[in-house]
Amino acid sequence: MADIDLSSVAAWMSDNVAGFEGPLAATKFDVGQSNPTFLLEGPKGSYVLRRKPPGVLLKSAHAVDREFRVQSALAHTDVPVPQMLALCEDDAVTGSMFYVMEHVKGRNIDDPSMPEATNAEREAIITEMARVLAAIHSVDLEGVGLSDYGPPGNYYERQLARWTKQYRASETDSIPAMETLIDWLGAEMPEDDGQRTLVHGDYRIDNMLFAKDGTDCLAVLDWELSTLGHPFADLAGVIMQWQMPVGPEGRGLAGVDRAALGLPSDDAFVDLYCQMRGINRPERFGYYVAFAFFRMAAILQGVKKRALDGNASNPEKALRLGAYVPRFAEMGLEARA
């Protein structure tokens, strides 16, 4: 496979992954727009490899070493993650940094309306989503060695500066709604309430693996954007995703009769999460949702720019996703109320 040098990877795994034997065959997953991800199959089992993409990259993006670190730290917590096996920081092996992890054989749900499920199954899976999110935000940072995993200070102030800078670095067209949203987020930023937890950064149902014959979450995937920060960023990210159109691109619940399917309203999910964490419902939640739309718009602008530059993992899909940037900015403005 052109994306990775299988013979070099196999030789490296022989030295760094206990019990490994080659040769390897690889299949590229069609998920993982940011960091290309591969299923590796060998005589004694299967593995998953996740690597930085080739080409010139934005500073601090595609941090597979951070993914490896955080998932290693979570191995013995209530947060389900794959077992981390080895990290390769030597670009000479196959062109960029990568890590190898356990292949979790669960089911991926890419449509939150779960058309094949029963109402009881839908309710159980969404409840599990809230439980796992609360578990992420309840991790003992000192106890698992993650107290230095993110910088101190106001999370939203830091994130607004970071993603505005990332957006400017990948900007291809002027989007008036994005400019208005950036200005509003800066002017209306809430005061720091002191909450500082592990934050996943891209928490949604399609970044989770569930038991094939049940509703338990077996693994939370895609930790590239994780850091220490404000937990409502993840919570608002779930609500933002549900406001997107139904289908493989939007992966949302817009227009869905949730009650008829046994799915909670946005407010009911927020209340369930808060109950599981033992905290009060957040005030001014619209700010957090607006910020979630802004950040996703900035992320998708980067995806679009990589496609135009020839560095996207899946160029056709990247361009389709990039077309959503103006709509995400508009929905961020709509969420302000």
Automatic annotation (TrEMBL):
* Keyword field contains Transmembrane: no
Could you state a single Gene Ontology molecular function term?
A: kinase activity
Xref: InterPro entries: ACAD10-like, ACAD10_11_N, Aminoglycoside_PTrfase, Kinase-like_dom_sf
Give one Pfam family, short name only.
APH
**UniProt keyword list:** Kinase, Transferase
| Record domain Aminoglycoside phosphotransferase: where | 27-250
Q: In the UniProt record, does the keyword Membrane occur?
A: no
Q: How is this protein named in the record?
A: Predicted kinase, aminoglycoside phosphotransferase (APT) family
Q: Which organism is it from?
A: Thalassococcus halodurans
